[in-house]
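Human: You know discrete backbone vocabularies at least as well as I do. Show me how you would write down a chain together with its backbone fold. No explanation is needed for now; the record alone will do.

Assistant:
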Amino acid sequence: MIINEKAIDAISNVLKSIRDLRYKTLLLFFVVFIIYLFQEELRHLFNTKLIDKDRIVLELDSHTLIDNTLNSLMVEAKADRAYIFRFHNGDAYYNGTHKNKMSCDYEVVTNGTSREAVNLQNMPVSLFSQFIKDVIALKMFHPDIATIKDVITKTELQRQGIKGIHAVPYYRDGKLFAIVGLDYVRDFGDVNSFIKNSQKEKDWLLDRAEQIGDLLI
């Protein structure tokens, strides 16, 4: 009788193990089926999280590098402010076309010089078309902004306390991608020799803008 009870218990345990294994197997098959069914969505979600995480870290390093490079540019040019405007598509018009905008994404200044980047975000390109045209044409080199003919450009620069400006375009894949600029807010004094609007200064700034622009993600 004791042997029979042990045999029954052993059989029961085996059956229980088989039943548990069957449930686990079914559960495993179910999980595999779900993964297979939603593999594209899961892959996209997984990749997105990885990209977001990596991009944040990457951009932090990039921001620091660009700021340091802009600061070096500002010091070499004896300017008071160096910055980068980037073009982007913001909201869409009702007809479906994009509303082109530009934002000051990077800015470094000397001690005592105001920071203007926070006020220069999401600006419609249409409001500053002449300024952008002059930058493209390499005509935004003004030791004295009083010589600027476009009233809108002159008024905006005066609002920021700017007395002289140099700004050049940066292209990527043949398209206008950004503007790299230098502002002078002090009396020119000993920096007149640098900002005299010569081809040498234009070439120098274009070369530096190319180097800085290539750092943009």
Remarks:
- The mean pLDDT is 82.
- Residues 2-37 form one domain.
